[in-house]
Amino acid sequence: MADRNAANLMGRGESLLFLTDDQLRRGIEAMFFAYRGFTADPDRILQDFGYGRAHHRAIHFINRSPGTTVNNLLSILGVTKQSLNRVLRTLVEDGLVDSRVGTRDKRERHLFLTQKGADLERALSEAQRNRMRDAFRNAGPDAVAGFRAVLEQMMDPDMRRHYQEGGDGSR
Amino acid sequence: MADRNAANLMGRGESLLFLTDDQLRRGIEAMFFAYRGFTADPDRILQDFGYGRAHHRAIHFINRSPGTTVNNLLSILGVTKQSLNRVLRTLVEDGLVDSRVGTRDKRERHLFLTQKGADLERALSEAQRNRMRDAFRNAGPDAVAGFRAVLEQMMDPDMRRHYQEGGDGSR
DNA sequence: TTGGAAAGTCAACAAGGCTGACTTAAACTG
DNA sequence: CAGTTTAAGTCAGCCTTGTTGACTTTCCAA
Predict the structure, then answer these.
(1) pLDDT digits (tens, 9 = 90+) for B75-102
(2) What's the CA gap between B165 and B99, in Å, rounded?
(3) What digits encode the pLDDT tens for the residues A27-47?
(4) Cα separations (Å) of B133 from A20, A107, A154, B141?
(5) Residue B113: CA count within 13 A, CB half-sphere
(6) How far apart are CA B146 and CA B151, in angstroms?
(7) Per-residue pLDDT tens for A87-96?
(8) Which of A98, A125, B36, B146, by CA, is between 20 and 30 Å from B97?
(9) In 10 A of CB A94, how many CB atoms?
(10) B93 strand D contact, CB < 7 Å
(11) CATH of A23-130, one of 3.30.1490.20, 3.40.50.360, 1.10.10.10, 2.40.50.180
(12) Which CATH architecture has domain B21-163?
């Protein structure tokens, strides 16, 4: 039964790779279940603030690229500006995000985390990093590279660009 | 700069693992961007039917375990029964899912895909498998094992149980 | 046999996606 | 300089998918 639908047997003399439909299904379910675990800790923290995942994503990428514009955030998050605006508005109103008119181009708004925003960011990312660190530790060093390689291949090209640009260049 | 916050240097004499906050942040973003790619193809197909991801998830797990009960599905999907019920109702109304009253326990409903439901399942999973197969191929055989190992570690224990039970035992 | 637990359903609400139409201000361009 | 494009924001309304609360039907065990 393991041989039906087997793909890529002896690709280029590499080790055998059984990519049966069943193996692929397992990969699909792994993504599904793992993503739930991945978001579980931040979700719990956000609930106490009355925020959701959308707020987390905005906070994360503003922290990653301080001074980023709304438009840039839009292309990273892949949502409509109406959707992002609703989230951003509450974050600014609540004093987590500072929106400053651009100096070079006054149409643009540059986004920064306030101290309060940075505090929440830290709590959220710390929880998420802890889980990822434990997963990496338990899976072992070799697994980490494979994890990242497969995920990178799974991205749409536009998102892969954003992902790579977010790196520190030390590759 | 790569050395601040470095964790797990020389864990047990294994190869060096630099788990800096920045490396972990990269892993977090990899999950975020990859999950979007992972769901993109099915999302497009579902749109033509007026369905969403919730329908996809139900269809997937009914296909995996034909005759499963609503309660079992509930514990896998981790949503409220009211939320699942709405999705299930439309699938039954549209003739994609067959809901049969249990013979032993008449409170239970056993769920099956109809031919029509199986057809949609196939279209969805085929698109998703194609993407995963390509990702696996491009990342290479070693990466696949690492990918799965890390994801499994990232799951909450309850979900890991569901994940492992869904395997074919050939490990 | 009756009371509680389990399975499922109905109603109403909220978050966060979406589209479409529109305004304002700034920047660019012929 | 006039006209167009671009960035940002707003308002209205819709949909999916999550939630809670109240309810019925069915089963089982004390």
Answers:
(1) 999 999 999 999 999 999 999 999 998 8
(2) 23
(3) 999 999 999 999 999 999 999
(4) 9, 44, 9, 11
(5) 20
(6) 8
(7) 999 999 999 9
(8) B36
(9) 16
(10) no
(11) 1.10.10.10
(12) Orthogonal Bundle (1.10)
Instruction: Identify how many contiguous H helices and E strands chain B contains and give both numbers.
Output: 7, 3
Q: How far is the CA of B79 from the C1' of D19 (A)?
A: 9
Question: What gap in Å lies between CA A31 and CA A34, rounded to an integer?
Answer: 5
How much is the ipTM here? 0.89
Residue A13's pLDDT band (cuts 50, 70, 90):
very low
Q: Please tell me the distance from the alpha carbon of residue B166 to that of residue B162, in angstroms, as a whole number.
A: 6
Nearest residue, CB atoms, B38 vs list A31, A33, A131: A31
Q: What is the mean pLDDT of chain A?
A: 89
pLDDT tens across B51-76, in order? 999 999 999 999 999 999 999 999 99
Give yes or no for CB of B82 within 7 Å of strand D: yes
pLDDT value at residue B168? 56
Sign of CA dihedral B42, B43, B48, B54: positive
- The protein residues having a beta carbon less than 7 Å from any atom of strand C are A 50-55, 57, 78-80, 82-84, 86-87, 104-107; B 69-71, 74, 81-82, 85, 88-89, 99, 105, 107-109
